[in-house]
Write a structure and sequence with these properties.
Blueprint (H helix, E strand, L loop, with lengths): L1 H26 L16 H4 L2 H24 L12 H24 L2 H8 L2 H12 L8 H19 L6 H23 L7 H22 L9 H24 L2 H22 L6 H28 L6 H17 L3 H12 L6 E6 L7 H13 L4 E6 L2 H8 L6 E5 L2 H4 L5 H6 L1 H8 L3 H16 L2 E4 L3 E2 L12 E5 L13 E4 L4 H19 L11 H15 L5 E5 L2 E2 L9 E6 L1 H7 L2 E2 H5 L2 H6 L5 E4 L12 E4 L2 E3 L12 E4 L3 E3 L4 H6 L1 H6 L3 E3 L2 H9 L4 E3 L20 E4 L3 H4 L4 H6 L1 E3 L2 E2 L8 H17 L2 E4 L2 H10 L3 E5 L26 E4 L5 H10 L11 H15 L3 H9 L17 E5 L11 H13 L4 E5 L9 H5 L3 E5 L1 H11 L4 H5 L7 H13 L1 E4 L3 E3 L10 E3 L12 E4 L4 H12 L11 H13 L5 E3 L1 H4 E4 L4 H5 L5 H13 L2 E4 L14 H8 L9
Parallel strand pairs: 1-2, 1-4, 2-3, 6-8, 10-12, 10-13, 13-15, 14-16, 17-18, 19-20, 19-22, 22-23, 23-24, 25-26, 25-28, 26-27, 30-32, 33-34
Antiparallel strand pairs: 4-7, 5-9, 6-7, 11-21, 28-31, 29-34
Length: 1158
């Protein structure tokens, strides 16, 4: 038996070596992981007929070696000692010849691993032929049949995942499966006709050589096509494994021999897949496992167990032979093949070098730019490209490449520019857009390139430049490209592709030079002589200076550079209102007009059009212009309506009485742009009276982002356009220190340029952002200060610069509804003495923040809810880092936490508008509250408009949280749920949520009408006048309060019981828990003083009534008395509410996204 085991080992190892060398000889490939499988496949190798020559060489070597062994070493005859059956001999010889020809043909056509897998089905044919032709074969049992089916399935799975599969290779392998079993059966039938099994090899090989001799003579001159080393190795080991195979066949039946042969193939397949770098796919691995399981199910497991039990068979000689054979195999097949495969597997877990590039432009990324990125990656394999995208369309284009080596990341400029001089440059992006027009996007790209090279280092390339056949140098030193064909200058194209280390001194100095030159020539340049910013000249000068001084000069690499021809896909221009006509007419300019343009400019990708507010017709011949229409409209000579090519965002509109007849005449234009955002309540009422859907948006200047990103205050106090009479009331030291500023540019203002006025306006914004306090009567000074966090004292009086109150009015219509945003001095109702006293009492040393944060945040949220509907503006806001609009107040001390359970909604993935209003009513009164939505259906992303506006809202899974909470408190959830409908699971969820988190719980159909009494903690509300149950629509408790814990524990122990009158058993349980143990520590409020409920019985009072005693009483309760209104089941199919009704008041008075009117 020991000898048999040795022959099995030799058979397996020799077959592995022969298979690999045969594959290499038949297809002419090298086992290199970088070779494509496509070079092995198809019929080209079959047509070459190299596989026939290889077969002839194998048999010639077999005959030579077998005859030499028998005649020289064993001194035996090649011929058998007894007469043999000619038919059996012919079938054995034919089977051997056809089987070898078919195997080599399959090697030529497909991967060797696929050939071996198909040949693993050889036992199937052996079973069938043995049953038919071999008397000692036994029966084809169910177990054998099942094993055959399993192996066939496994082979099909393997083939489905094999990229080199073709019908020619499959057919050749199947033919070999038929031929070799026939050979084995009839060699076995020849029995004891030979003294030495090698006599069989000699006779079969001799006869095969005779059959192939004619072909050998004809193709003798073409034998040099075969790789010599691989061919002779294949022939030698082909003889060795066939000799060992026949020796094993002497000891086992054909079926057992076939099963051992199958086991050998598992070993050979894995070796072939490693050497030839055949991809391991899910299906190939699955197929291998299924084939092995089918083999083991039959006799394989028994044979192996028998062999493994004979430990003495594994002599030192066998171990030495196995180790030496493996070492010889690795050495012969050039160990780099195996090591390359291992290295490839290891590199999958090592970070590849990332090449960065960016597309910052508003226009869609063109297809040829995407192709250029792919081509650059193809020329430089083994790397990945990260594209920083400034638009959602760019992100989608990157995803659509379906290339895992190309990834996208949305470009957020403040994050990219962090801790570089570019932070300050970016903070001034609104004025840069005005001064540079459409070129601004190119400047952004240059800044992004510098920031990426500074922070990330490595390689960066310009996606809009073709780099010819450029390939990345192998060294890690700094280098830059020098274009040879874009221009005659030697420095053009520098940085179009380059490599620098992280925090390179060259990039640091180039970034400083970028900001310095930009500030000198653009930001602070003279408007009438602004120079075009030439970044390439700046780079060339820096490169020349570094290389002349020999200080860290990067290597120059000359390459052909070609700018991609990009058809300008921009479909629209981006504009802003200008006031040139007004400045020329009045010979002076009010820079407050330009100040109010900057918040809109922030959201635009660039500005390349100035549209005169008083003469829209000048822009009629232009193409599509997208722009904000926030302005004061009151010039009697203005043109209205605007032409169709202007696409306005109608926010912060003020319509003066002087022009209202003209606006009324063309009211259909405003109706086509609904809803209209009004800057003040007076304009809002005018539009509503004319059946125009409108909302209060406030002034857009509330959205101005401060350029003072370092938050350094100068300590200066500005007195902006304040009447002398009011200025005289200031405390003497403040009056002495205050710096007087006027928004009107007098002499020469009429000749100023658009850009000059915008520069002057932005300089004022920068000053206000650093001031300690600003005192003003200017709306467009006060509101920007509120937006930037600068305390402002606003004097409201009838004589206001830019237009005050109409005669007889007690308030200026320009600021109605906005005065709570400031520290307002109401000069309409205050005497001079009281104003002076107010000013003396003001804390000048440390001015208090501006009041009414709630109104400021909801006006911002309302405007943003309109702006974000334009994807270009939304992307621009993200890119320039404008979000969130207000800093969130997450986890601040004493932050009030509200909970809502929204697990049962008509639309499982979104909220109905009444539930939105519930959430908004909370933020209306508590802008810094934290709202936690408990739901298994909703996602936090559905509330992005609120988080982007600065509110704090989260979504937590309901079921998981409750189960975790229950388990932590050792309550058996299964025991709890078995009580069925008798237990109100929704009410239980409310208790569990409050126990886990603490805070305030309100139902999703409740509107918060006014702020709560924060002294009321651990509070419930009576459910009826009988005071024997609780209304759990509102609760407030401390975290882990004993009442909640006791109620939850009792609920888990509670047994289902009948209702107690009109009160469910669960409600009774809660009541008795409170009454018996927590009457003194948990306060219960009367429902009438806390809730006003509208449901089916009083539906008309909410939805229809607009007058009458019941209506008046209910409206009084809602406006002045109760803290909550509960509207149950009345609004299911409604989208608009009747004007003047209580429901209209409830659902439109406590909003934070007030452009949505119901």
């Amino acid at each position: 038996m020991a000898t048999v085991v040795l022959f099995v080992a030799v058979w397996w190892i020799a077959n592995m070596v022969a298979t690999i060398s045969s594959k290499k000889a038949a297809s002419g490939i090298k086992p290199d992981a970088t070779d494509s499988l496509a070079t092995w496949t198809g019929t080209a190798a079959l047509k070459d007929l190299r596989w026939i020559e290889l077969t002839m060489l194998q048999h010639l070597f077999g005959a030579l070696l077998a005859n030499t062994w028998l005649l020289v070493f064993r001194r035996k005859s090649v011929f058998p000692k007894e007469s043999i059956n000619p038919k059996h001999m012919l079938l054995a010889v034919t089977g051997n010849l056809v089987g070898n020809l078919a195997t080599n043909a399959s090697f030529a056509a497909v991967s060797s691993s696929l050939t071996q897998v198909i040949k693993s089905c050889e036992p199937i044919f052996t079973f069938v032929f043995a049953l038919l032709f071999y008397k000692n074969s036994g029966n084809l049992t169910r177990n054998v049949l099942f094993s055959i089916i399993v192996m066939v399935v496994g082979t099909c799975l393997f083939i489905s995942g094999e990229v080199s599969f073709n019908i020619w290779g499959l057919g050749a392998a199947v033919i070999s499966n038929i031929a070799f079993p026939i050979r084995n059966i009839y060699l076995k039938k020849l029995g004891q006709s030979w003294d030495d099994p090698l006599q069989k090899i000699a006779v079969v090989s001799n006869l095969n050589v005779l059959i192939l001799l004619p072909f050998a003579i004809m193709s003798m001159s073409s034998l040099d096509k075969l790789p010599r080393l691989e061919s002779f190795t294949s022939a030698t080991f082909h003889f060795i494994y066939n000799a060992a195979s026949i020796m094993v066949l002497q000891a086992f039946s054909p079926v057992e021999h076939a099963m051992l042969n199958l086991s050998k193939r598992m070993f050979v397949i894995l070796a072939n897949m490693i050497v030839f770098s055949t991809p391991f796919t899910f299906w190939t691995v699955t197929g291998l496992l299924v084939i092995f399981s089918g083999h083991y199910n039959n006799q394989g497991g028994r044979i192996f167990m028998q062999i493994m039990k004979m430990r003495r068979c594994f002599s030192p000689a066998i171990i030495i032979f196995g180790i030496s054979s493996f070492c010889w195999f690795v050495g012969f097949f050039r160990s780099d093949a195996l090591m390359n495969q291992l290295q490839m597997q290891l590199t999958q877990y090592q970070p590849r070098e990332v090449i960065t590039t960016a597309w910052v432009y508003e226009r869609p990324i063109p297809y040829n730019v995407v192709e250029n990125i792919e081509a650059f990656l193809d020329r430089n394999p083994g790397m990945t490209v990260k594209v920083f995208c400034g638009t959602s369309q760019c992100m989608k284009a990157v995803q659509d490449t379906h290339n895992p080596e190309i990834t996208g990341e949305f470009l957020v400029l403040p994050e990219i520019f962090k801790k570089t001089p570019l932070e300050l440059w970016l903070a001034r992006h609104p004025i840069h857009k005005i001064l540079t027009g459409v070129d601004f996007e190119d400047h952004v790209y240059e800044a992004v390139r510098l920031a990426l090279l500074w922070h990330h280092g490595g390689i960066h390339f310009d996606p809009s430049i073709k780099h010819g056949e450029f390939t990345i140098p192998g060294h890690q030193e700094a280098w830059v490209s020098i274009g040879t064909n874009l221009t005659q200058t030697k420095t053009h194209g520098v940085l179009s592709v380059s490599r620098f280390p992280v925090h390179s001194a060259f990039i640091a100095n180039l970034t400083k030079a970028f900001c310095r030159e930009y500030s000198r020539n653009i930001t602070n340049g003279k408007p009438r002589s602004l120079q075009k910013f030439d970044f390439q000249r700046l780079v060339g000068n820096m490169l020349h200076r570094y290389c002349m001084s020999g200080d860290c000069c990067p290597t120059h690499i000359e390459t052909e550079l070609e700018r991609i021809s990009v058809v300008d896909a921009r479909r629209r221009h981006f504009g802003t209102l200008s006031y040139a006509s007004r400045a020329r007419r009045f010979k002076r300019a009010n820079v407050g007009d330009e100040v109010q343009s900057f918040p809109g400019i922030q959201f635009l990708p660039f500005v390349d059009r100035f549209v005169d507010r008083d003469n829209f017709n000048k822009a009629k011949r232009d193409t599509h212009i997208r722009m904000f229409f926030n302005a004061w409209y009151g010039d009697a000579g203005m043109t209205w309506p605007p032409p169709r090519n202007i696409d306005p965002i109608t926010l912060s509109v003020h319509i003066h009485n002087r022009v209202r007849p003209m606006f009324t005449k063309y009211i259909k234009y405003l109706q086509s742009k609904e809803p209209i955002g009004c800057r003040d309540s007076d304009t809002l009422e005018f539009l509503k009276q004319n059946n125009v859907e409108a909302f209060l948006s406030g002034c857009l200047t509330l959205l101005i982002q401060t350029p003072n990103i370092e938050d350094k205050r100068s300590g200066q106090i500005f007195l902006v356009d304040v009447e002398k009479a009011f200025a005289a009331l200031l405390p003497p030291d403040i009056k002495r220190r205050a710096i007087r500023v006027m928004h009107y540019k007098g002499k020469g203002g009429g000749k100023s340029t658009n850009k000059g006025r915008f520069q002057a306006a932005y300089n004022l914004i920068q000053k206000y952002s650093k001031a300690r306090v600003v005192i003003t009567q200017r709306v467009h000074c006060a509101l920007p200060c509120v937006a930037m966090g600068t305390p402002v004292i606003f004097i409201n009086f009838n004589r206001m610069p830019g237009g005050g109150a109409e005669r007889g009015l007690k308030v200026s219509p320009r600021v109605t509804g906005l005065t709570t945003l400031f520290h307002t001095i109401d000069a309409f109702n205050m005497s001079q003495e009281s104003i002076a006293q107010w000013l003396r009492d003001f804390n000048w040393r440390k001015p208090p923040p501006n009041p009414d944060v709630s109104m400021r945040m909801r006006l911002r949220a309302t405007d943003w809810n309109v702006i974000r509907q334009d994807l270009v503006l939304y992307d621009s806001a993200r890119k320039f880092g404008l979000l969130p609009l207000s800093p969130p107040a997450t986890n601040t001390p004493n932050q009030l936490v509200f909970h809502l359970i929204l697990n049962r909604t008509r639309n499982l993935t979104s909220l109905d508008w009444p539930k939105w209003r519930t959430i908004e009513s909370i933020f209306y009164h508590y802008p810094h509250a934290r709202i936690i939505i408990h739901s298994d259906n909703l996602q936090t992303g559905q509330f992005d408009v609120l988080t982007e506006s600065g509110y704090t809202i989260e979504v937590h899974g309901l079921s998981a949280n409750i189960v975790n909470n229950i388990m932590k408190n050792k309550i058996d959830i299964k025991h709890f749920r078995r009580f069925g409908s008798g237990l109100n699971e929704e009410d239980f969820a409310k208790l569990a949520v409050l126990f886990q988190w603490g805070g305030v719980y309100i139902d999703a159909d409740v509107i918060l009408l006014r702020q709560l009494d924060l002294s009321l903690i651990n509070t419930l509300v009576w459910g009826s006048e009988k005071q024997n149950s609780f209304d759990l629509s509102f609760m407030r408790f401390e975290r882990r309060h004993p009442f909640l814990e006791t109620a939850i524990l009792k609920a888990s122990e509670w047994q289902a019981s009948p209702k107690d009158g009109n009160v469910s058993a669960f409600e009774a349980l809660l009541f008795h828990t409170w009454f018996n143990n927590f009457k003194n520590s948990v306060k219960v409020l009367p429902q009438g003083d806390f809730f006003k409920q509208f449901s089916a019985p009083n539906e008309r009072d909410c939805l229809q009534s607009t007058f009458g005693p019941v209506f008046e009483s209910s409206m009084k309760q809602v406006r002045l008395e109760v803290r909550f209104a509960k509207v149950k089941g009345l609004l299911t199919n409604l989208s608009k509410l009747k004007n003047g009704t209580i429901c209209k008041y409830l659902f439109n008075s406590f909003c934070v996204l007030c452009n949505n009117m119901y």
